Amino acid sequence: MRSSAARALPAVLLTSCLLATTACASNTSTGSAASGKGPSASQIAAARKEALAAAGGKKIGGKVTMLGINGGAEGQLIKNALKPFTDATGIQVDYTGNEDLATVVQTRVQAGNPPDVVDAADLGSMLKYAKQGKLVDLDSLIGTSTLKSNFPKSLLDATTVNGKTYGVFNEIDNFMVWYNPKTYKGPKAPATWDQLEKFTKQQAAAGKTPWCMAQNAGAGSGWPGAQWIENWFLKHYGGAKLSDWVNGKLSWTSPEVTAAWKAFGAVATDDKMVAGGPTTVLSSSVVNNGTGMVSSPPTCSVMLWGVYAGGVTLGQKPSLKAGTDLNFFPVPASSQAHADDELFSGHVAYAFKNNPRTRALMKYWASAPAQTMLVASGQWTEANTKIPASAYNNPLLKKASQHMLTGKNLVAGPSMYSNPAVVTAFDKGVVSYIQKPGSLRGILAGIQRTASTG
Predict the structure, then answer these.
(1) How many angstroms separate the first and last alpha carbons of the chain?
(2) Half-sphere exposure of 41 toward its Cβ, with a 13 Å CA cutoff?
(3) Model confidence over 300-323: pLDDT tens digits?
């Protein structure tokens, strides 16, 4: 997910889908909503204890401003996770969610009135403030040893500038290939991408469209395709090459990037490969990305999308069960050399102020008890490695977390690091490519021009 409206959509859509079903009863007294049972009394007590420790054992009082991207029902879940902090420390957290977060933060920074804390869904637009000396490094605010003992090195490296860590992940998303265990006939643990591709081509040849795909998200249309392309690239060329793409060492017109787009196009622009053909791919809402897998009869077999896809898909059909009617396997790589490279996105907390209240909040928000409060909502996987697996009441999220946080090389792509103009060009380029497959060269040249002027 990103700081733009397009990348916020997975969260917004997940909430809207779940709240539209009978499975979405909320309980504000326990902080539960949507598909989760909510935190237990012991989890809430642990969060209060952690919060008090983060404040040095004192009820400090006062107020902290925190801006994030999640509003509505999901914003309420975040407020619920912050409540034990306020109860224990007396510090009121003024949390506001805004999909246009990057613009709001930029405006406030330019006006000399930055928020105390920002919980953003990207890296690029925020780390520029670190380079400008406007963010507080978390090695001094939280402590280097605490950060290293609670988070994978690759996540800390992602928010490091000139040797200092400036962001701490909470929500974290990875990507996988989804399928319906009751109807899927292909390999459930393909060793290579070629094995999966062989199955999809066999399905297409037999007149059965293999891939589920939808790209319509209004102004943000195309972002699922951008994630598909990044995943294919990472699993074929590895993390170092993806970093080169992110850093501009590898251009958007390079053979490697072009190959990733063409691999996507071989699926998205082929009537035999995607359910309904390219026209349906462009017109179908991303909410319906995976519904073809769980329809009767199914109209497609597999879908490459993020961890949030489980909630979105099952939210459309609440009678179905996670694991029984919907499951996933890791995105296979072209070779074993890239098998442990894992694309990720997520939410990162940054601090603009260095004072006792902000310090206490950042320590709390990075802790396992605080992130367990979010896990208990049943909507998110969280980054802190000390969260017990038992905290996950959603089996698909538990499986995703265990896969993602155990020895993987987590790598973020252009969608997380690029400036908003490049992100928009990427998404729009996906739509243009599906509409006119012969225009790829010009599309990539256009994105490169945008990147070069950013």
Answers:
(1) 21
(2) 0
(3) 999 999 998 988 888 888 889 999
Among 389, 406, 423, identify where a domain stops: 406
* Structural domain includes residue 5: no
Residue 7 lies in a domain: no
The pTM (predicted TM-score) of the whole model is 0.90
pLDDT at 28 over 60: no
17 or 31: whose pLDDT is higher? 17
Q: In this structure, are 233 and 361 located in the same domain?
A: no
393-431 pLDDT per residue, tens? 889 999 999 999 888 899 999 999 998 899 999 999 999
Q: What is the CATH number of the domain that holds 118?
A: 3.40.190.10
pLDDT grade for 235, boundaries at 50, 70 and 90: very high
Domain of residue 435 covers 174-343+415-452
Say if residue 280 is in the same domain as residue 322. Answer: yes
pLDDT for the residue 11? 43
